[in-house]
Specification:
Elements lengths: L1 H18 L2 E9 L26 H15 L4 E5 L19 H9 L3 E2 L10 H10 L12 E2 L4 E2 L14 E5 L5 E8 L1 H4 L9 E2 L2 H14 L4 E7 L2 H10 L5 E5 L9 E3 L2 E5 L6 E10 L5 E3 L5 E3 L8 H21 L10 E4 L14 H18 L5 E5 L18 E3 H7 L14 E7 H17 L8 E4 L1 E5 L5 E5 L4 E4 L4 E7 L11 E3 L7 E7 H13 L32 H12 L13 E3 L5 H28 L1
Parallel strand pairs: 1-2, 2-3, 3-4, 7-9, 9-10, 10-12, 17-26, 21-27
Antiparallel strand pairs: 1-13, 5-8, 6-7, 11-12, 13-14, 13-15, 16-18, 17-20, 19-26, 21-24, 22-23, 24-25
Length: about 625
């Protein structure tokens, strides 16, 4: 009998084994490439030579091809989680009619990309042209790369509606496995795409639930989400939507040192600017339907030890020539090469913390104030720049060939985002007059948005020509329970003083105090991006109204405030920074430290008094009711 049962056990195992098979596959992924075609920092880069730089499509290509060779017959998929463009000066070639980012990704063999918020930097029509040049308007798509975006709705009869965008795709691998892939742009990321135009966002959680069900019904063995939502949103997604096996994430420039596991969902973020290539290796049991991640190295640093693929560097060299030509033409030959030394310094000028005055913030705001004064011939009293537009630091070279130098390419990338009304690359600077009352409002808005918004450091303003004291705890009375609706107090800004000197603002006593109730006008400068959200807050909170005006007090639109050079071109934020650095030649010692332009005070938050008052009110009501019931009982 024992022999018989042993025979049955062996037989059942043999039958199961005949129908069961473990199939392997590999997923490679990147995110937030931001048009970073070359290794960075560019200051330290020597083509074809070892250097302490990271990234670049040429190194990525080498590493991807190496992994594909190692895997031989095993399927290897390569994905991007969005923001393939925007931030680097190479992105400026997009409105100039080039699509180098997608051209390189198709050459390397990406299987799919999704949308990030920066895909909309130049608007949906320019995005359509970008993909049309890469062949995505054709019925039979050029190359193997797909664009997958599941929760964006594009109206019919628009330019972007003519591009082949997929809501999801099932990849049938050589080993028979079916990998279902969908892509989501998170709500917080979508809010940071002011030029999204007619493209409509749909709730990512609800869309994910529906899409996962569709993919399972269509036979997907494994489901992968390409997410441009941020790490916290990805965690929520894994908790709320069952059936997603892998979330490849991006947006907040996080690098997960090891994959996270929430339930049965693996979450990974590989970082940004092509600093790393993520690699996940899986086995799938066709009988148990179990997906297992192998314990293999997850991140590959794309550093100088990886040789560059010369077929890719040839394309990047072409992009360099185009960018140099654009730069020369736009600046009337003032700048003609991204490789030229922009400025020298024996110290770095960096953004060392959030929600505070920084040395790089002071440098940029001073550049705006001083250079606009040269262009317009007017004294600029104040300059404001949002942290969200500041994308880098002045980190001078440390190598023998780059010692104390900083390249023009790296300088331009610090504030290279956006476009102007004329569609030329980079946010233009705007100049207008505001009353002293409105100057207080600007600073209140900075404090209020910092308290209200997720990732709100982007709204925190760096300043020039001014110093002020504020208490962020006085921005809000609190929030309405259960509704999470804010109750603005607008009492954060305590005092504001104007710098009366003519050059770099330092810790001197050349200041005069502003009057919160004064209608005296002052000329201010900011960029187009900041200029769009400052007046918007006033439409929601009339007490914080801000309206752009000319010297006579006549109201102006934001487009009427755009500053132009003598030849009629928009004067860009990146131009002011490049010209300021060039005029200095060497960064002055004043920028080694901050000089109390922004002083944060830590008082008792108003919300404490609000809740205290509510508690007292509730206690009084309870006491009153108790007295009433006692009297009635007697």
């Amino acid at each position: 009998m024992k022999l018989f049962f042993s025979f049955l056990l062996v037989l059942s195992f043999s039958i199961r084994s005949a129908f069961s098979e473990v199939k392997d596959f590999t997923i490679l992924h990147t995110s937030d490439e931001h048009s970073t075609l070359s290794p960075i920092p560019f200051t330290e880069y020597l083509k074809g030579q070892p250097s302490p730089t990271l990234g670049g499509f040429a190194r990525l290509s080498t590493k991807v091809n190496e992994i594909r060779r190692q895997k031989k017959g095993e399927p290897v998929l390569l994905f991007s989680c969005g923001d393939i463009m925007g931030g680097s000066p190479y992105a400026w070639l997009i409105p100039e009619g080039k699509s180098y980012e997608m051209r390189l990704m198709q050459r390397i063999g990406y299987d799919a990309v999704t949308f990030g918020n920066h895909e909309f930097d130049y608007g949906p029509d320019e995005l359509a042209k970008f993909y049309e040049r890469a062949g995505f308007k054709e019925q039979s798509q050029v190359g193997k790369t797909s664009v997958i975006i599941t929760n964006m709705r594009v109206p019919n009869k628009t330019q972007l509606s003519e591009i082949k965008l997929l809501p999801y795709k099932i990849y049938e691998l050589e080993n028979g496995l079916k990998i279902g892939v969908f892509g989501l742009l998170g709500k917080e990321a979508y809010k940071l795409a002011p030029a999204h135009g007619y493209v409509v966002y749909e709730d990512e959680i609800e869309v994910a639930k529906t899409t996962v069900q569709k993919l399972r019904e269509e036979g997907a063995n494994v489901i992968v989400e390409l997410s441009h939502s941020g790490i916290e949103a990805d965690k929520i997604m894994a908790q709320k939507v069952k059936g997603i096996d892998v979330i490849l994430g991006g947006h907040d420039h996080i690098t997960t040192p090891d994959p996270l596991l929430i339930g049965n969902t693996t979450i990974v973020h590989s970082g940004y600017y092509l600093r790393n290539l993520g690699q996940l290796e899986f086995s799938f049991d066709t009988e148990t339907k179990k997906l297992t991640r192998k314990n293999t190295p997850y991140l590959h640093t794309l550093d100088g030890n990886i040789p560059e693929d010369t077929s890719i560097t040839a394309i990047v060299d072409e992009a360099n020539r185009k960018l140099n030509r654009f730069l020369s033409e736009y600046t009337n030959q003032r700048f003609d090469s991204i490789s030229q030394v922009s400025v020298t310094s024996n110290f770095d000028v960096a953004k060392d913390a959030d929600f505070k005055e920084t040395t790089i913030g002071n440098f940029i705001a001073d550049a705006m104030r001083i250079e606009v004064s040269k262009v317009t011939g007017k004294r600029v009293d104040f300059a404001f720049q949002g942290n969200g537009v500041i994308r880098g630091d002045i980190l001078v070279g440390k190598e023998v060939w780059s010692k104390d130098k900083f390249s023009l390419y790296d300088m331009l990338g610090i504030v290279g985002l956006g476009k102007g009304p004329d569609m030329s690359p980079g946010y233009p600077l705007i100049g207008c007059y505001l009353t002293e009352r409105e100057i207080f409002n600007v600073l209140e808005v900075s404090s209020l948005l910092t308290e209200l918004e997720t990732g709100a450091d982007q709204f925190f303003l760096q300043v020039s020509g001014i110093k002020y004291n504020y208490d962020p705890g006085k921005s809000l009375w609190g929030k309405i329970p259960y509704k999470n609706l804010p109750l603005p107090a607008t009492k954060a800004v305590k005092s504001v003083q104007m710098f009366t000197g003519d050059s770099i603002q330092d810790g001197s006593d050349e200041f005069v105090k502003l009057d919160k109730n004064s209608d005296k006008l002052h000329y201010i400068v900011t960029d187009y991006y900041v200029g769009t959200f400052l007046p918007y807050v006033g439409t929601l909170l009339p007490k914080l109204k801000i309206s752009f005006k000319d010297e006579n007090g006549k109201e102006l639109t934001i487009d009427e405030c755009v500053i132009h050079t003598e030849d009629g071109k928009e004067f860009k934020s990146w131009q002011s920074l490049a010209q300021y650095a060039q005029s200095l030649k060497t960064i002055p010692e004043q920028y080694k430290t901050t000089h109390d332009r922004i002083v944060k005070e830590a008082g008792i938050p108003l919300v404490t008094w609000t809740y205290t008052a509510l508690v007292i009110l509730v206690l009084l009501i309870i006491w009153g009711l108790k007295k009433l019931f006692t009297r009635k009982s007697k």
